Amino acid sequence: MAVDLLRTEDEDAASSEAPALGGAEPAVRVHPRLRRVGAHLAVIAVFTLPAVVLWWRAWSVGAASTVRCACLDPAQQVWFIAWPAYSLKHLLSPFSSMWLWPPHGVDLLSNASTPLVGIVLSPITWWFGPLAATTLALTLAPGLSAWGCWVACRRLVTWQPACWVAGLVFGYSPFVVQSVAQGHLSTGLLVFPPLVLVVLHEILVRQRASVWWCGISLSALLLGQFLVSAEVLAITVVLAVIGIVVTAALNPHRIAPKLPFALRAFGITGLVSLVLLAAPVWYMLAGPERIKGPVWSGLHNFFVAQIFSLWDPGTYRSPLWSTALQGPPLQFAGFGFLIVLAVSVVAAWRRRGMWVIAIVALVATVFSWGGILWLSPHHPIVSNWLPWSWFTNLPVLDNISAVHFSALADLAAALIIGIGLDALRWSNPGRWLPAAGRIAVLGGATALVMLPMWLTYEAPLAVDTVELPPWYATAAHQVPEGSVVASYPFPASASLVSEPMLWQAEDGMRFRLAGGYIKVPGPGVGVIGEGPPDSATRTLDDLTQGSSPTAQHFSLTATKLENLRTALRTWSTAYIVVTDTGVAPTEAAAVFTAATGAVPRISHRAWVWDLEAHPLRGPYDAAAAAGAFGACLTTTTQLGQVPSSLPLPQTLNQCVTGGSPA
To answer: What local confidence, expressed as pLDDT, does residue 532 receive?
Structure first.
């Protein structure tokens, strides 16, 4: 029945006429539902072809060894794909993890973790690794999003080529392409919102399927979207409610007789969703590692769409990856898109369905502005009358990035273009537009909409080849499974470092990591930051960021050493591993030597402290270690200026004793 909901009226008619066509029966009879599944898979494959071009460098070099960037969010997304596969194999929860930020762990549902994607692609992760699974997911995301829009458009038009244009416009909109390019599957995989529209159309308009199947199908789609992105689910629900209200207001006489069916379907949806979503929603909102309050301070004025970006693509170079060209802002449309959209609205003005979608598109666009109106790059106007600013203090809604409303604004705009092309199929009442004219309209509209967008994309996308530091590529495979590794560089949101999470994922999640580039609750409201000035996280963040790379700019106090030593115990650290990467590896080696009171051994181009064999015990003189740190840091820095020359462990003795190097 779920497949039946994807059928159009034309398919229903063809199915009912099939027995009357006569003729010999085929040698092999295929069940109609299997044929429809095969047809939809073929459509997805066609829509995915441009994404293969987009990710061609990854596929041609090696999907199992490349990533968009071995840093920040792209590396984090690899971890998000790897964890569900590991959790399923070891019977752990895919929604939380103790493999980051021990001893408390992390709530993955409070992050953009897309657990459904990781679960579905677990076989790929097991057989080919998390990098291959991530590349596959990012490649499929635009095609699946386009297919969802194609399915939704088929419910609203009779000219099927218009649906292909709508799908292409939505699946390869700047919002989707930029999201996958930045490693954001949670916002780049938008297959569920258009399918929700299909079921809502069935419930409110068509009403041919069983009321139970409508309610259950809608619940399943809501669950699927929750397990990809709770934020997009909240946006979808908000705009769906607005669309239902607008539909009822514009068509009161048509909706009234359909109301009993709709109320039963929505009642079933509520009951089934309560069963399916109660536990994960509770865990996200009230679980032990939940984030209280807004994730980002001033979110409604920070992640917002800018009006001028609808037609101005701006500059494309990303501040995060200096070697990678980015496309336009998420909300970019281009003049061609806006022209075709306006013509489509005029052409289909008599269709009530277009009115509903146009109003939803307008509301989503206004909501995307958040609480600030950017009329130009240099003239922001903060205003309390912008409607989304009225909701930013409400629970759940306070963590929605306003700019993400652009995703469903794009979906609505793509459907309007599809409806408009269907309306333009007629040259005048009673006569079809000639075939050549239809081709010209279709091709011209597609080029006018897509070319300005594609010219701003980097295609194919640049990728990095992943090379694990030697210790993580070799020795890490021998540590006892579940051991906690405190690494330098230190992974954390404040340090903007996620590489160790990528190394952990590539090593099959064998060890746990102290820290993690992920949102975790802070001591009060919001997420953890750098921490207090003398805290262990602040010390490690400073070393990782390179803000204090030399003795002249870095003072190690007894309090910092005591806090770092305490943190290592709290994390149940088994190994400290300082690789010769990052901006200040020798300084980090000196700090850990001072904190542990022991010199490391050099193993596979890394300084390693085995705290399982040599645990942290007293007595420990933090003041003496801090006093000796200056001379030690100067010596190790001089010896470590050439990355290939690691200082001998004996040179770190003075971090403990204050004596001269051996």
So the answer is: 79
**Which of 109-123, 181-195, 251-265, 267-281 has the weakest average pLDDT?**
251-265
CB count in 10 Å sphere of residue 615:
12
- Report the pLDDT averaged over residues 182-207: 94
CA quadruple 546, 551, 557, 558: dihedral, nearest 10: 110
| The amino acid at 562 | E
How far is it, in rounded angstroms, from Cα 457 to Cα 174? 8
pTM: 0.89
pLDDT, tens digit, 9 for 90 and up, residues 29-38? 667 778 888 8
Cα Rg of the chain (Å, integer): 28
- Count the Cβ atoms, other than its own, within 10 Å of residue 602: 15
Q: How far apart are CA 455 and CA 465, in angstroms?
A: 26
pLDDT of residue 298: 53
Q: Exposed e or buried b for every residue in 324-343, given b needs 16+ CB within 10 A?
A: bbbbbbbbbbbebbbebbeb
Q: How confident is the model at residue 495 (pLDDT cuts 50, 70, 90)?
A: confident
| Segment among 19-28, 338-347, 510-519, 561-570 with least mean pLDDT | 19-28
CB–CB of 232/240 below 8 Å? no
Beta pairing class for 426-428 and 431-432:
antiparallel
Instruction: In the chain, count H helices and then E strands.
Output: 26, 13
Which helix (H) or strand (E) segment is 426 a member of? strand 426-428
d(CA 103, CA 120): 28
Q: Determine whether 108 is exposed, middle or buried from the number of CB atoms within 10 Å of its CB (0-12, 13-18, 19+).
A: buried
CA distances from 502 to 55, 463, 655 (A): 19, 15, 31
The confidence score (pLDDT) of residue 300 equals 54
Q: What's the chain's length in residues? A: 662
Sign of the dihedral defined by the CA atoms of residues 390, 396, 402, 406, in that order: negative
The per-residue DSSP string of 113-153 comes to --HHHHHHTHHHHHHH-HHHHHHHHHHHHHHHHHHHHHHHH
Average pLDDT over residues 459-478: 90
